Structures are given as structure tokens and as C-alpha cells.
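pasting for the record
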Amino acid sequence: MKDDDVRTSISSLSPSELDVAINNMLEIRPARNKFEYACRGNPITTSGKRTQLVKMVCIVMIPVAVLTGLTANTFFNTFTSYMSSGIRNTILYSVELGQVVHSLQKERDMSALYISKISPVSKSFLLQRYPETDRSIEQLTFWTTLSQFEFQSKDKFLSYLNRHRYELDTLNQTVTMELELYTTLIRVFIKWLYDTMPEAESGFIWRSLVAYLEVIIVKEYMGLERALGMVFYAKGRFPSRDVYLWFSESQDVSNATFLSARRYSDLVATLYNKNIEGNETILNVLGRMRAEIRRNDLGGQGSIKMAEWWYNNMTVYMDLLLETQSELSQEITGLLDERQKVNLQKLIAISIVFVCVFVICPIIIYAAYTLTNEIQKYSISLANRTKALNKEKKRTETLLHQMLPKSVADKLKANEVVDPENFVEATLFFSDIQGFTQLSARSSPIQVVEMLNSLYSCFDGRIAMYDVYKVETIGDAYMVVSGVPKRNNNQHAAEIGTMALSLLDHISRLEIPHLPGTKFKLRIGIHTGAVVAGVVGMKMPRYCLFGETVSIAAKMESLGKPGRIHISHSTKDALQTLGGFTMEERQDDVCRLK
């Protein structure tokens, strides 16, 4: 239904129907979208007002709730990150594990040296390593329990390690077996370090963590290289080709891994350039000795001193790596501290936002409640005014329709031009009161008005039952037409004739209000013919009839007698064609209707 159709249908309702329509005005037009449907509600009724208020508050609360949820989620994540010490604990634990690995590497080197060259000197070097290894293991704050017996607890591991130490001289252990034993133990601890790294929390320091782990791997392979080199210098050659290949592999892997670590961390590259490349003496010595080991030929002339010299130089090199590892751990710790500061600032900012949300939220809700309440009050006021406006419009239209025909009035309201119209045939009715001038002279103005009001009220009540249109009243004269402006074929004469008989019958029983016992004496004239109708005037437009038919109808009334209906020959012919009427001719050749 279009808006114009809605307005037309509302304007045509009765007052009672209009009240119902206004009370259900929101049901007239369907919601155009989901949001409009969600906001629908009848603000006129109490329940509708409450429902609409709840909906509006809920709609306002949706973005507030989303904002609160997002803020709470961000606050929770930031708080969890701030309170989390996983990476920090991992770094501290990795330092402890690194110390254990470093101690085991030294013990592995001395143990391999002792087996390669059993002597009091090599035995002394080995015994010096045991307490250092035990202390590093005792200082571990956490122990990962494994299914292997030696790794089920810290005490069992120390017991296993001590038993191996005591039985070293009786086990008939080869260098390869000893190196493989310690290497297996060391790589278990390195695996622990990998497993403890929290991937979910290391996103912002992952490069430093990778470099840190790479440095630990470099130290392991370099320690293995150091141990195998000591075996070479102690014996003057490698025990087997496999041991030689093992040395070459360890050297190559350590070099490649260290290169990878330098690419992951600028700090590793900086420390390498500063400490290692800057120490040309160590690099030259190690370069020469590595080339010598690669050749695998000392003529079988090994010595403890050469092995110690190799060990000491490699230890200096590895200590630089240990320093690099320590620097990396400090860098990661610094990054963690910096992130802690940032998280603390975020927590403070989010807390402020939280407080603002909780402070503003009631204000927003109250503002939405107040605004909705005011809108509802305005809607009620607007509905009441609309109701009053429609009632006034209805009253105005009623008055306008009393002055003009409905079809003509509708055209004028639509600002359309109402052109004069020719009607080929219509029947006009004229009436007046005989002796009205004398009655007016004997009556006061108020009595005259009351008399005419009584008469015309009777007329107006009766003519509403017929297909006629009241043209005008001038004084005691009353003019009615049928067939204008609505054509009714040839029924206009019958409508006017029946109406005239009804009016005459009712007037015969109607007394003059201020003259009890005195009845109205009515003269009636009727004529049928062609007329022209049109609207005349701008400020007070009137629907007027023009033509000879009007003059003849007026003449018929003026020449008539009281209590009689005087009709013309054209009206007589029209009524005879229709039938149902009795007419007789006056002696002066004017017909009168019964």
C-alpha cells in the first residue's frame, strides 16, 4: 500500500475507526529491513512503550557490549602476557642447562684424552672436571623425568655418572664409545632445552631464541670437535676412519650452524666480528691445527702437551661462544623486560578505557532511555495531534462537501481545474414558504433563524435518502437537483418527485416553533431540462447551476399553490415514462403532482 493510499484510507474513516487506526498506526506499513523490524513497537500503549524502550536500550547496549568484550579480551591477553614468566624461566633454565652441557663437554674431552693416553697427567685433568660437572647438575632448578633409568631423577643421574667414572678403568672403554656416551647425555639435555621453549609466547623474540639455540648446537659440535682433536693429538692419529669422518662432520656442522646463528641475530654477528675475528692469533693457531688434523698424519708421534695445547685454544674459542650465549640470554631478557614495560603501559591504558566504559555506559543507557522516553512522549503527542487533525480534517471536508459536491471538492483539494459541465437533462426542485415575509415581520431575528433551521433540518434529513444534491438555500428558498453532478440516466425526475412528496408529507405535520398550532405552507416547483454546472468564486466557491431550466423551475415554484407540487410538461413526460406517479392538470394548464 502506498503512502497516498494510506492517507486517503485514513481520511475516509469514521472517528471511531480513526482512533483504532491511530492506535495501530505502526502496523499499517511493514518494516523495510531487519533494523526497522527490531525497532518496531506501538508507543501508544503501555506494553508497547515498554517493549520499544527495552529494544532501544538493547540496541544501544550491543556496541557497548562489543566494546567491553574486546577491551576485556585485550586486557586478559595483556595481563596474561604480563604475568607470564614462561620465556624468562626458560632462558634462566637454558643458562643452567648450558652450564651442564659445557661441563659435560669438558668432562667428555678429558675422559676421551685419558682413554687415548692413560697417564697421571690425563687422569689429573679428568678428576678436576668431575666436581664442576656435579655442581652444574646440582644447580638445575628443574628436572625432566624420562623413562630411562639414569634420567628418572637428578640423584639417579648423578649416581649413574659416578658409577661410570669409577668403572672407567675396568670397563675397557674405547675412545669412540666414551665420546658417544657423553654425546648422548649432552644431546638429551639439549633436547630438554628445545622442548622447554614456549612457541606460543616467543613470537616477538623468535629470531633471538633461534640464534640462542643455534649457538648451543655450535658449542656441542665444537666441543665434539675439541674432544676428537684431543684424541688425535694424544695418539698421533685417529683410531679409525669413522672417527676421522666424525671429526670432519662435527667441524662442518659447527661452522654451518654458527653461520646460521650469525644470520638470525645481529648480536651474534657483532660478537663474532669483535671477539673472534678480532683475535687473529687464535684463528691462525686453530686454522693451522685443524689443517693438521684434517691431514691425519703426525707420524704416530702424539703427546699430551699437544692435546692440551689444542684443548686450551679450542676452549678459548668456545668460551667466546659461551660469552655470546650469555650475551644472547641478556638480550632476550632485555626484550622481555621491554615487553613487560609495554604490557604494563597497555594494562594502564586498558584499565583507563575500562573505567571510562563503566562510567560512560550508564550515562549512555540513561541518555538512550531518556531520549527514547521523550520520543515516545512526542509520538503520543503527535498521534493525539494527528487524531485531532484528522477529526478537524473530517469536519472540514464535511462542511466542504455540504458546500460543493464531493467529486468537485476532491478536484479542488488536488488543485485541479474544475471546468463547467453541460448536463443534457436534469430535474430541479424549488420551494419556499408562503407568507414568509409576513411571518418574518411578526418574528424576531432569532425566531426567524430557528424557524428556518427547523424547516431546513427536516429537509436535509429527508433529502439524504435520495439521489439528489442540495444546491443552495436563499432565505426561505430551497433548491435541489438530481442528475447533477452525478448522472443517473433518466432516474432524476423520479428521485426529485419522490423527494418532493416526502417533504410535503413531513411539512404538513411540522409546526412553526414560536407559533404553536401554525403549520408551514410550502410551495414547490419542479422542471426537467438541460443545465450548465460549474464552480463560481475563489474565496467562497459555490457550485451553481445555469440555464433556462433553472428559471423555469423557479417560475414553477412562484406560480404554484401552497401544499401542491407544480411540475412542468417535461417533468410530466419524464414521470409518465417511468410510471408510478399520479398527476392531474390545473385549470390554468399547469400540472400538479400527487
